[in-house]
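New here. Invent one.

***
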Amino acid sequence: MTHEHWESVWLTLEEPEKSFLQALIQMAAAFHHLESGNSAGTISLLRRSLRRLEQCPADFGGIAIAPLREEVSQWLHTLGSGTSNLPEAPPQINILSTD
């Protein structure tokens, strides 16, 4: 799905789902920038994504938000430090168990 498709969904939502989906879109776009070598764009989008995720409760819509926020924070810290030793994987979305 392209950014435009996600945006068309995002524009129809109400809060808080709207901000949550926007945070996910920004996070995905950030890693697209990272693949393109645009670290400034990556950092900017991850910061905006994190600000939106910080407005969500620890669990939201069946997703564990607290660990997602922590992973985004770790990426921002690593990118900001200038090291080339990046985490092995982008932040992961963890679905909460329904047990």
Q: What stands out?
A: Helices lie at 3-10, 17-35, 39-53, 65-81. The chain has one domain: 3-81.
